[in-house]
Design goal:
By secondary structure, the chain is mainly beta. The protein contains 3 helices and 21 strands.
Length: 381
């Protein structure tokens, strides 16, 4: 039996460096991140007496490119890992993966493996959606792997001898879901006796993208007020950690109903509302957080950001969370009563590539040189 697997390939403009990678997505397991490994084929005659370095670069654009005037810059870069890959060490400090071994046998003695480790707690790959009239690179956190020829790892690379390939750091749904979300809120009225009670429950805490959320609502009206309508929505909270006031919310789906209303004093109401958070009609709204996409992938809402220590947030990145909010409208004089429940929205772990077998065949995907447009990688020195 022959197993097919995909290999991503990209060459430097002068053709002297060629990067091969078995995957472009690296999973963040919260306590650690999968290592980034691959193989680089080096033109030995060109590289004789020179060094080749591999680096993982995290870029953060937190402002629009068109607003950068008078030297103002809304762009940061963070070098998370760096390693010299050529000349290779006499003995590798790790065991090459099966894909690396297959590539080394196919490419010959000019190929060398590499492995880079990204620290735990590094920001996730998130893009903030541009409006239709916006131009330039979208705001968000992006990663790319960079290979270049230089004397040291802090050299400013020349474009002709540099390879830059976009990658992603992703999180998948945890295997153990948390407790069922539930809350009860009550409202007292200054000039009237009794209180209004709203009980809100979700059927589970963890939802997958595209899954419908069942919101269980129970209203007990022990006051003399009248509930006129009910509105439920899913809110996406975006926290841009680099900015002091970088917190805002987007409503990604909502439903409004008057079924069972008006709810008179002394009455009760039990109802289930269905909400399906999806990008859908929101493709032209600025500021919606999306999962950073690679080549030829459909955009989806950003997954919930899972943190090892919620209090110890990194000052570099974007944190995304979701919640269901239900609001009871009591009219102009009665005011409102609202309850909110957080939940987790993520992609499942299923569907990841199988282990590469010994009798395998590689499907190679090539990339043009203009597929990464980050500032540092396009300048010529």
């Amino acid at each position: 039996m022959v197993y097919n697997f995909k290999v991503f390939k990209k060459c430097s403009p002068n053709g002297k460096l060629t990067l091969y990678m078995p995957k472009r997505e690296f999973v963040d397991h919260i306590s650690f991140v999968e290592p980034i490994d691959g193989v680089v084929a080096v033109d030995e005659e060109y590289a004789r007496g020179r060094r080749v370095f591999a680096q993982v670069v995290c870029t953060f654009r937190y402002g629009r490119e068109e607003d950068e005037v008078m030297g103002l810059n809304f762009y940061k870069e963070l070098y998370l890992a760096s390693e010299q890959v050529y000349p290779p060490p006499e003995k590798l400090p790790y065991e090459p993966s099966r894909t690396q071994e297959r590539l080394l046998r196919k490419l010959g003695p000019s190929a060398v493996p590499f492995r880079l480790s990204v620290p735990a707690g590094a920001p996730g790959s998130v893009t903030l959606q541009n409006a239709l009239e916006d131009e330039g690179e979208p705001c968000g956190v992006h990663y790319y792997l960079k290979l270049f020829v230089g004397d040291s790892e802090i050299d400013r690379s020349h474009r002709r001898s540099t390879v830059a390939l976009g990658i992603r750091k992703v999180q998948f749904a945890p295997s153990k879901p948390g407790p069922q979300p539930c809350t009860v809120v009550r409202k007292d009225f200054v000039l009237s006796p009794g209180q209004l009670e709203l009980e809100l429950t979700l059927d589970k805490q963890l939802y997958m993208h595209g899954e419908t959320i069942a919101v269980n609502i129970c209203v007990r009206n022990h006051s003399n007020k009248v509930v006129k309508k009910i509105k439920a929505c899913v809110q996406q909270a975006v926290d841009v950690l680099l900015l002091q006031n970088g917190q805002y919310r987007n409503v990604v789906c909502s439903v409004e109903t008057q079924d069972g209303c008006p709810l008179q004093p002394g009455a009760s109401l039990q109802k289930v509302l269905s909400l399906t958070p999806a990008l859908g009609t929101l493709r032209d709204r600025r500021g919606i957080a999306l999962d950073a996409q690679l080549k030829r992938q459909d955009a989806t809402l950003a997954s919930t950001t899972l943190l090892l220590e919620p209090e110890q947030r990194d000052a570099f990145g974007i944190v995304v969370s979701y919640s269901v909010k239900v609001k009871l409208y009591l009219g102009a004089l009665g005011g409102e009563l609202s309850a909110e429940l957080p939940f987790i929205l993520m992609h499942p772990k299923e569907g990841r590539a199988q282990l590469v077998q010994a009798d395998s065949q590689a499907e190679v995907e090539l990339f043009r040189q203009d597929t990464v447009h980050h500032q540092e990688s396009v300048e010529v020195y």
